[in-house]
């Protein structure tokens, strides 16, 4: 038995969730080994030495799905508005997490190539990401820690969690926007003041709820339990809410003032690609343990 098969067999033996009571056929093991080799091969390939190939393929598939949905959005919305919003949110959440994982992969590759320091001539993109981390005004800790315990080259489970979260939150957001529309109606005589009332209500009521719902759902989905939720909220809730108030009031002014109601959630979700990518990086960084670099001076990246 080769090394990879031995490792896979040891994974099965050590897995406490039912593997020891299940007989694994040779064909199933062969399929699993081939799947792992295929993913490993894709994960090890980079475009121009910088962009991870697998991440890029997944991003292109997601963008193709989004383009398809956009081309027929009005028709889908008229037939099934809530389902259309749910699918839109799921795809956009997937795009955001793929972007976040791509940033992490670029940074991780650069750190592994240059464990004693990054060469800007070879890793300009990674250097730029590292500089953004260092200048991050919202925290004194790196957004992407220098650690070998970072997420794997592509985490399909994490992608699924983000898409599922976007899918499930869409009805709540849809009803919320409907509530704001009926409570603060815009008229030709008075449009600015009701729009400002919508923004204020959204940021004072829904934003704190949305941040809490995100970290709660993600932590529970990762198996963190109530203690994990409590710790995540303690560490990340207020810094993330602060970041929210930097971005979203201005976005919502445009949204509530100019966007028709059927485009408000897609508009928010599109702008939210960057925001969700930030949340994805923040949520992932919180689970990373600090690691020291192999040089004479001990340097540690604190977990988010």
Automatic annotation (TrEMBL):
PANTHER family: PEROXISOMAL MEMBRANE PROTEIN 2, PXMP2 MPV17, VACUOLAR MEMBRANE PROTEIN YOR292C. The keyword Transmembrane applies. It is a multi-pass membrane protein. It is found in: Membrane. Belongs to the peroxisomal membrane protein PXMP2/4 family. It comes from Podospora pseudocomata. The chain crosses the membrane at residues 46-66, 86-106. The keyword RNA-binding does not apply. Keywords: Membrane, Transmembrane, Transmembrane helix. Coiled coil: none annotated. This is Vacuolar membrane protein.
């Amino acid at each position: 038995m080769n090394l990879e098969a031995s490792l896979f067999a040891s994974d099965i033996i050590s897995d406490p969730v039912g593997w020891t009571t299940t007989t694994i056929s040779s064909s199933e093991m062969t399929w699993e080994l081939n799947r792992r080799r295929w993913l490993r091969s894709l994960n090890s390939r980079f475009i121009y030495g910088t962009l991870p190939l697998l991440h890029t393929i997944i991003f292109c598939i997601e963008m193709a799905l989004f383009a398809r949905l956009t081309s027929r959005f009005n028709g889908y919305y008229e037939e099934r508005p809530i389902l259309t919003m749910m699918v839109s949110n799921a795809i956009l959440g997937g795009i955001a997490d793929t972007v976040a994982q791509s940033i992490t992969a670029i940074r991780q590759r650069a750190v592994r190539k240059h464990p004693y320091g990054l060469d800007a001539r070879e890793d300009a993109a990674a250097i730029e990401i590292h500089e953004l981390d260092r200048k991050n005004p919202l925290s004194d800790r790196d957004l992407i820690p220098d650690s070998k315990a970072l997420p794997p080259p592509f985490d399909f489970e994490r992608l699924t969690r983000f898409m599922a979260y976007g899918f499930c939150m869409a009805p709540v957001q849809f009803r919320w926007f409907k509530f704001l529309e009926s409570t603060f109606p815009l008229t030709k005589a008075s449009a600015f003041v009701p729009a400002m009332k919508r923004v204020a209500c959204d940021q004072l009521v829904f934003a704190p709820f949305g941040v809490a719902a995100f970290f709660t759902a993600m932590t529970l989905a990762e198996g963190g339990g109530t203690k994990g939720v409590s710790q995540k909220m303690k560490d990340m809730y207020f810094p993330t809410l602060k970041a929210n108030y930097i971005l979203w009031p201005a976005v919502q002014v445009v949204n509530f003032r100019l966007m028709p109601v059927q485009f408000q959630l897609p508009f928010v979700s599109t702008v939210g690609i960057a925001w969700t990518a930030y949340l994805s990086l923040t949520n992932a960084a919180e689970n990373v343990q600090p690691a020291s670099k192999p040089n004479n001076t001990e340097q540690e990246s604190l977990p988010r």
